[in-house]
Structure formats: C-alpha cells, structure tokens
Amino acid sequence: MHLSSLKNMQKFVDEYLSSEVGRSLKILDLGSTEMGACYRPIFEKVGWNYIGADLQAGPNVSLVLQDPYVWREVPTGSVDVLISGQVLEHVEYFWITMLEISRVLKPGGLACLVVPSSGPEHRYPVDCWRFYRDGMLALGQFARLENLQAFTCWDDSGDPGSDFWHDSVGVFRKPSRGVFKGAAVRMLQFAQHRALTTRLVKSISA
Fold first, then answer.
1. What is the pLDDT of residues 147-169, one digit of tens each?
2. DSSP 139
3. What is the pTM of this model?
4. Would you place residue 105 in the very low, low, confident or very high pLDDT band (cuts 50, 70, 90)?
5. What are the residues whose beta carbons fall under 8 Å from the beta carbon of 102, sequence distance 6 or more?
6. For the chain, what percent of residues have pLDDT higher than 90?
7. How many whole angstroms separate alpha carbon 195 and alpha carbon 122?
C-alpha cells in the first residue's frame, strides 16, 4: 500500500465522513490484506465497525469471501461505507464487482475506490486493468451510483513509491430511491448480475 493511496483515502474520510464520527457505521474494506500498510488506522473511530474482506485469510482480513463475484457473506443493503484500494486492477471482471458494491451498500451509502492509472505489471495473481477519471465515472454510471468525485493524480508527489501509479480515485453514493424505483433497480441489477455470472461459469467450464 503506497503513501498516496493512504493519503487519498484519508482525504475521502476528511471530506465525506468527518461529521459521522460517533455514529454507528459499518465499513467494508474490499481487498484488505495488509501489504506494508492498510487503511484500518484511518477508520478506527468511535462507533465505526471496520471489516477487512479478501479472498484469502491473512493480515487485516476478518471476512473471507468465497467467491469474488458473489458475496454471500455480505447481506444486501448492509454496508454504510465500502472502500477499496489497489484491487480492481486485479479483478478480471470488475464490472461484476461494481454490481456487488451497489448491492451491499445501504441507500445513501458511500464507496471510495482507489486504482492505478499507470505503473508496471504487478500480478496478484493477475494484473488486468488501469483506470482514468472517465473510467471511474463509467463505473458509477454502470452500477447506477451517483458520482460524487473522480480524478486522476497526474501531479508528482515526490514519493517514488506512489508517483509511477498515478492513482485514480472515485467516490460514489447509492441513491435513496422510492420503494417502487428501488425495487425496479434491484431487480434489474439482479438480472444483470445473474446473466453475467452464469455466462462466466459457463465460459470457465467450457
């Protein structure tokens, strides 16, 4: 976990969550395995319940997801804040992940994603993607989340461990919809998710 990623996540907390200290918040960190550093210290606030989730047990992981695209361990509409850093570049079908992010967020819930726009290949176990600002906006649109902020850190910070990644950051909110519209969106996204994951299983089995 490089320094600029930590700073970007701290900035997210300062801008969007500073008034929530003391309130009960469930915070899910997707891809939380500690590699040199992690986001946990940023979210150790009164009333906040930080949960580190990853596909394998390890340092800073309290929830092991059995399937990268079907999070049976996380109930629908149960998460106040979802955070993730340096993960989506390793997810082969990240658009399915975005549907799961949308599903688990509560109405009004926030997501902050930090991803590289450049940098060398770093397989863990694969390295598939890089993202720009417009890519972050597209992620929010696809998942029917409100885009609050999207940018790419093009300016050098002076930290050699950060600057060649030039992270992109996206901040999203799940809209609070009416009963009927909310149900319609959930049904549509369920159909999207089922179609994408069924096809994925079939392609792997072929």
1. 999 999 999 888 878 888 999 99
2. H
3. 0.94
4. very high
5. 143, 144, 145, 174, 189
6. 88
7. 30
Whether 44 contacts 16, CB under 8 Å? no
Task: Report the CATH number at residue 109.
Answer: 3.40.50.150
Give the confidence band of 117 by pLDDT, cuts at 50, 70, 90: very high
Exposure on the CB side of residue 145, measured as CA atoms within 13 A:
33
Q: Total domain count for the chain?
A: 1
DSSP-assigned beta bridge partners for residue 140:
none
Assigned domain for 201 exists? no
Q: Is residue 188 part of a domain?
A: no
Of 77, 26, 75, 73, the C-alpha closest to 65 is 73
Q: Which residue(s) pair with 106 in the sheet?
A: none
200, 100 Cβ separation under 8 angstroms: no
* pLDDT exceeds 80 at position 206: no
N- to C-terminal Cα separation, the chain: 37
| Dihedral of the alpha carbons of 78, 81, 83, 89, in degrees to the nearest 10 | 60
**Are 145 and 173 within 8 A, CB to CB?**
yes
